[in-house]
Amino acid sequence: MIFSKKLTAASILVGLVIAGVAAVKPPLPPHKNLQVLPKDISDEKLDSIMKSYNKALNVECDFCHKKVDNFPDSIDYATDIPEKEDARKMIGLTIYLNKTYFNYKNDPQPEYLTLVQCMTCHRGDPYPEHPKPLPPGK
Questions:
Q1: Cβ-based neighbours of 125, under 8 Å, separated by 6 or more
Q2: How big is the CA angle at 57 (ends 53 and 63), to the nearest 5 degrees?
């Protein structure tokens, strides 16, 4: 009887220790290969921005990020592919436009301004038509 109580108590203690270890998450390493977005961006902000890109272009993550060979549901977010380089140029363009033309309050982080964003031109199309240039003098 005493042995049974000790065994039960020990089992509960081991279970609590295991649960405690599982609940403590080690700090995540910094995001790898961020070249345009701020390097200190939070996971939540990065996820939010990436989801806005998914919606604006009507694509999934593997449009700009490399799928891992032999693991069809895994993505290598750090490796560069041509579509990711194109995305960086477009992100830089939107940051430039917002910072140059819409940063009236002199926001210290103009890369988070969203007056001009991917949806402005893409509207759910990963390859939108280029706008026609204005005639000279307009």
A1: 57, 58
A2: 80
Measure the CA–CA gap between 38 and 31, rounded to whole angstroms.
Answer: 10
Q: Which pTM value belongs to this model?
A: 0.69
Q: How far apart, in whole angstroms, are the C-alpha atoms of residue 16 and residue 49?
A: 37
Separation between Cα atoms, residue 66 and residue 60, nearest integer Å: 11
- Whether the pLDDT of residue 95 is over 80: the answer is yes
Alpha-carbon gap, residue 105 to 115, rounded angstroms: 13
- Per-residue pLDDT, averaged over 19-40, amounts to 72
Residues 95, 77: Cα–Cα separation, whole Å: 21
Q: Where are the alpha helices (DSSP H) in the chain?
A: 2-23, 43-57, 82-102, 118-122
Residues pairing with 71 in the sheet: 68
Best CA proximity match to 49, nearest among 87, 102, 101: 87
